[in-house]
Amino acid sequence: MATDELISRTEECLAALPLTLVTAEMVDRIWQAGFYEDDLDDSEISIQEIQPHMNTILDFLQCCHCWINSKNEHPQQDKLDFWTVLKNNGISVKVLLTFISTVIRLHSKKNIENLNNLAAVLAANVYCTLINIHGSRAYKVFQPALIQSSMNLLKYWPGLKDIASNKAKRKKPTRTKRNRKRKIDQDFSDDDDDDGDNSMDVDSNSQEVEFMQADAEVALPYSLQSLLVTLVQIIDRALSGTNIALKDSQECFNYILNVLIELTRLPDCNMPKGFEWMQYQSSNSATIAKLIFKTLNKLSLSQHGDPKENINKILKSLMPNLLLREDITVKKPTVSGQNYIAKDLLAIQENTADYICNLVSGDNESIENSVYIFIQHVCVKVHDKAEFRQKITPPVVRIIEKLSNTTFVRILSWLEKYCRNQKVSNRVFGLELIQCMLERFAIIAEGLKDASNNFTAKSLLQIIVSRCLDKASTVRSKALSAVAACARLECQLVSEAICEAAISKITIVTKIVDETHEATESTTARLGGTGINVNLLDVVKRRMSDEKPGVRKCAIQALESLLSLDLQLMHPEDFSAICDRCRDISVSVRKQAMSSSTSLLERCLTNESYRKIWLDGILPLVCDRESSIQEKCLQILYDLTWAKIVKTKPEEGQPGWQLLSLIVNHDNPEAKFYFERACNQWCIAKKILANNINHLLSQDCDDFKRTTWWLISVTASYITSFDPTLVIDFWLNEADYLEKDDVLHCFVLQSISSIAVRLSIEKCRELYSKLQHEITKCCWTPNLISAGITIIHKFSESKVGISNEEIKQWSEKVLKECCNRICRISETKAIDASMIDNAINRMFLIGEMSMVIPGVVPGAVFLVLQKIVQDCSISVPQCLRAHAVTTLGKLCLQNEELAKNCISALAQCLDTSKDGALRNNIIVVMCDLCKRYATLIDAYVSNILMCLRDPEPLIRKQTLTLVTRLLQEDFLKLRGNTFYCIVVALVDSDGDVRNIAEYCLANLLLLRNPSIFMNNFIECIFSFNDCTSHPDYNRIQYKERERKLFSIKGDNSTQRSRRQRIYEFLLSHMPDEQKFHLNAKICQEVLGAFVDETMQFNETSCNVLKDAFTILRNKEIKLSSMKNNDANDFLEEGDIAGAAIATAKSKILTQVTKKNTIENIVPIIIAVKKQLETIRSPLLRDMMLYLKELTKDYRNELNEILVADKQLAEELTYDLNRFEREEKERRRSRTRLSESFILQDPKNISISSPDRGSRLNGSINAVRHNNSFNTPAVTPARIKSISKVNHSNSDQLQQTPVATRRPTEQLNNAADALKENDRAISTPCGQLSHVSFGTVMSSSAINKSPMPTKIPLRLYNKEQPLKEQESNVSQDVVYLYSPEQPLPKPRKWNLRH
User: Alpha helix locations (H) across 1157-1205?
Assistant: First the structure.
């Protein structure tokens, strides 16, 4: 546009503007007020007066833009400018700005319509454009209040009102503001005040404003959003110029910053269509967000203040964007009980991260320092929720990548310390950052070539490994997950670092490590180092036995990833460790172990040892209590076995056939049981079809014939559509081959029994005749005989042409023959092996026939078997007696009279027999008879229970299993000493017995009766200590032999530790409710019995009392809500409802427990304390240990109850303080002892006479006993005198070297050294620097006397003259007066009368 035309158009617009509405009084008042709205009148100009001139204002805005563009195109033009045109037309700048400010102010009026807001935004565009016109600075166009009012209009941006209202709802009541004004130029503060400092103030008069374009009375060629975008563009240009300088107006700067920060939190969208005459709007800002960040960046220019301080303010304001603060956008509804992160939040975060990355890319040191501080604050203020942390980590790492080498090394060093922060969430977030760096390691390392020495995969891995030993389970889980994730990365540098850490050892810094780890910070400092050397594989395997299920699960994932990275790292014990976790108590751990072990097995299916380990771990999961684990296990087994073998032949060497062959030939018969159950499930689910059976029947590989026929025998009863004659023909035609393999023969017979009902009459007859012939010869093994009898029994039930009478006659004939043969063999004096085998087979045949066809056994068989069982002569082999017991037991199940006659004889043999097999069979028979004749076995339950202490571990395991099964099925009642006998198995000498006992008690009996542990706990305390002085407990009369077998009484360390293990096991499986009741019950019924004097203090009762104190202070009896958070365990398992219930329950139980402790327990403890002090019992120390634990948990409650009795409170406080001092001294002496053995050379340790040393020890111990805690309270005067003596004694002891202050425990070591040296006790060895008797010497042990000794001891040095002995006394030689010289005269006393 030409200049003349522009001037003419400008003059037309100025003439059309309603500037006459502005009076001189308004101009003066507004300019004097500085354009602040609070000083203006609300009724000067109305919207009705402005409405007809809206298009004129828009034309004036266009003219202003033309003036800006013309000046940019012709900077040297000397013609009229905009301000001269104003002057020539008689328009004052003050009047124009007053008019604009009045229109802008329209938005704040109440009950305004959309037109008010459009006019206000349009006027704000005009004002900001006037600022951009050259020369505006001379006319003072820039007014801070006006620019703030213009920026305030941006709050009407669509969507921004919802954010403001959402924040207003979330805003909590704030405290009174401080009088002290906060420093604006301060670096990022620690207070999280983003809501107050970073949010834009919402005008109370405009809260009800709504934008509905349809309500406008005048149709305008523009929208509100277009005007707002134009306003931002104009402000962007104004801030980049020299006409606005915010350096001297920090309030305006902060306001503009807050408004722009709010605009960054708008939903991102493309730029709307703008005005054609805005030539500078076509920029790189394709979206509104980029335009806003571009404008925000202009605030860091030097004309607006110190760039460093401004950058700090901008970054601080942007922190909520990066942290995904929920109050910066509209809250989304929750999904599946978890917080849903809106897409708008993620878009805002991404735009913010892009802006900061662009900010850092300029290589400005001051900006990098600000970003360095910004990252630190982000890490400190990061959200606690895992979902948010996972989204925050990638943007932070992107920003770190853009830093220079120097700053990157600084932030890496800080992150290493940050990962050892006291706050758990900080350590977790630090690990996530390190993990993300490792995932992007190749990209970061390429950009940091100069810092490659400081930034290595090994250095990052060391940080992660150190947190695997963290004290918090959440951190340990995260560290192990990071190890697993990094091991799966494709980066070669990271993989090499992990392999190196797994093969060799790496050094890690320990600060907050696991409490159970042997290398804590204190031990590390004492050893003089700053870290420990660990192996990554060892650390991961250690975590697999962690107490937290989440840690164990992550450890399994980590170990799987490490072993998958390099299979050469895997050893059978590592793979076995994963498979062992398939029996974990946690469902999630079992699932992970099953998945990880299967994944590793698929990589090494050719290794037989790994296949066997995998089967041992996976197969039991078929019967898991969790249905999801069963389904997953069945699917895994099907994919690796059936899905493979139905498509291949055995001779191809497919791993599926090899797995099945291992199951068939497995040492543990339970493996076949589990897989058979899996096959049953597959058959029911129609996964195994008749085609699969036909495929198996067509196989002719000798190496896998056992496997083939075992599978047929398992599935034949479910699949009825294949031809059964193929099975019969194979058995009839391959008789010679089957005789060589009894196992294969048994599988074939089992297959025949499954299809017997489907055979034709001719085949049945043929099969029956051959079976009769083979069974009558009794040449088959017991397994074959059992299978053959089962087939005949199927014939009798199916009625396929063979009558029951025919079978019965044949059975009677066979049994009679068996009886005669057994009788002759038993009477033979010289019995060979073949005769024994034949007799065993015939006994087994009698037992099987009696079970299948009862009533056909002749009476002579009973007499023969009873004679063999009761015959203790050498002529009858023990194995024959053992099989006779089994057969007799089967007959007793069918004949009650026979059972009554035999039960006493079996019980007697059980007590007297020395043969393990015989006792084992008797136990099995008696437990079976207990199911059939429960009342008959009641008198012999004690005989069965005594087998729990049998010398043979197998019999103990068998008895424990059978007794547990009887208790489960209620054939045996849990009364008398039954529970006590079972619990003693927890401390059995055999590890397998202990494991079975734990399983039976915790997984079987406890599930059936959840209160079984609590109901029998106190009874166990008295039974274990053999205490019968209580009127209610341990009143059962035991046999003397039974008492000796199950006795674990005694005060020695072995017996105490055994009882302690039992107590801890029972307590660890009790819920909080039972622990609460048990705690009260022990105090009332055990401790209360001593208070009420129903129990007297003797040896056994003192042991009971000591056990009671030990139990009460045990950590297992404390409520889980007080020592850990069970809700976290539920959350790790994914059970949100269970976590909520656990939280509510823990709060209630904690309150009830505190009340019960104060009202019921504390009075009893105080009464017991007084009794123990009266008799000076050594149990006082145990009581004080419990009282010390009690004060830790209920210190405030104890103070409340002891307010009424101040004397008692003072006594308890004094006693506790004295007890703690003695405990510290005791621990300090142990520490000095250990240090003396470490620091001293064994050659310099003096060895003294054991006789004299023991006498000195006795005297000193006597003195210590008088000053020990067992004495009653003393007076204050006595306390002062004792403290003075102790102080003087301590001064003397401090001058004595460590070697002379060793406790008496060193005497044993000294005596051992004496035996090795073979030297007399009085003969010096080496140099005698000090004379000692290996005990703690104290002057308080010897009475002081004013009389001198007759033979004084003096030390001289023969190499120096006698005059120098005072200055330098040698300690090498002991000099004495000669016995020939007279003794010195006693010293005279100066007595005054």
Answer: 1162-1175, 1180-1193, 1195-1201
* pTM of the predicted structure, to 2 decimals: 0.71
- 502 and 431 Cβ atoms separated by less than 8 Å: no
**How far is 312 from 316, CA to CA, in rounded Å?**
6
759-783 per-position pLDDT tens digit: 888 888 888 888 888 888 888 888 8
What CA dihedral angle connects 754, 757, 763 and 767, to 10 degrees? 50
pLDDT at 492 over 70: yes
Alpha carbons 115 and 101: distance in angstroms, whole number: 16
Element (DSSP H or E) covering residue 1328: none
Residue 78 has pLDDT above 90, yes or no: no
Q: What is the mean pLDDT of the chain?
A: 75
Query: Where would I find the H helices in 734-877?
Result: 735-739, 742-755, 761-777, 782-798, 804-827, 833-852, 859-870
| Residues 6 or more apart in contact with residue 284 via CB below 8 angstroms | 290, 294
3-class secondary structure, 720? coil
> What CA–CA distance (Å, rounded) separates 1374 from 879?
78
Q: Is-contact 382 323, C-beta < 8 A?
A: yes
Residue 649: CB partners within 8 Å, gap ≥ 6? 699, 701
pLDDT on residue 6: 81
365: Cα within 13 Å, side-chain hemisphere: 1
Per-residue b or e along 923-958, where b marks 16 or more CB atoms closer than 10 Å to that residue's CB? bbbbbbbbeebeebbeebbbbbbbbbbbeeeebbbb
- Token pair belonging to 468: 């695997």
Identify the bridge partners of residue 534 per DSSP, sorted by sequence position.
Answer: 506
- Reduce the secondary structure of 386-413 to three states and give it as a string: HHHHHHHHHHHHHHHHCCCHHHHHHHHH
Q: Residue 483: its pLDDT value, please?
A: 93
CA dist., res. 481 & res. 386, Å (int): 13
> For residue 1235, what pLDDT band results from cuts at 50, 70 and 90?
low
Comparison of pLDDT for 959 and 108, the residue scoring more: 959
Determine the 3-state secondary structure of 335 from DSSP.
Answer: strand
Phi, psi at 534, each rounded to 5°: -135, 160
CA–CA separation, 1185 and 1109 (whole Å): 8
DSSP labels, 443-493? HHHHH-STTTTTS-HHHHHHHHHHHTT-SSHHHHHHHHHHHHHHHT---HH
- pLDDT band (50, 70, 90) for residue 992: very high
pLDDT tens, 85-132? 888 888 888 888 888 888 887 765 443 346 777 888 888 888 888 888
Tell me, what's the pLDDT at 1255?
A: 35
Handedness of CA 941, 942, 948, 951 (dihedral sign): negative
Confidence tier at 205 by pLDDT (50, 70, 90): very low
- Tokens at 342, concatenated: 């809106």
More confident call, 906 vs 57: 906
Nearest alpha carbon to residue 655 among 691, 599, 607, 594: 607
Least confident window among 589-598, 718-727, 947-956, 1268-1277: 1268-1277
832: left (phi over 0), alpha (psi -120 to 50) or beta: beta
Q: Which two tokens stand for residue 1344?
A: 């002081």
Q: Residue holding tokens 């998958």?
A: 564
Distance of CA 222 to the CA centre of its chain: 61
CB 1274 within 8 A of CB 1282: yes
Are the CB atoms for 1246 and 1334 separated by under 8 Å?
Answer: yes
Burial class (CB in 10 A: 0-12, 13-18, 19+), 698: exposed
CA–CA gap between residue 533 and residue 1205 (Å, rounded): 56
- The Cα 1283–Cα 220 span in angstroms is 97
Cα 912–Cα 914–Cα 918 angle in degrees, nearest 5: 90
User: Please, are residues 885 and 922 in contact by the beta-carbon 8 Å criterion?
Assistant: yes
Closest to 228 in 3D by CA, of 96, 122, 334, 76: 122
Residue position matching structure tokens 């099907």: 638
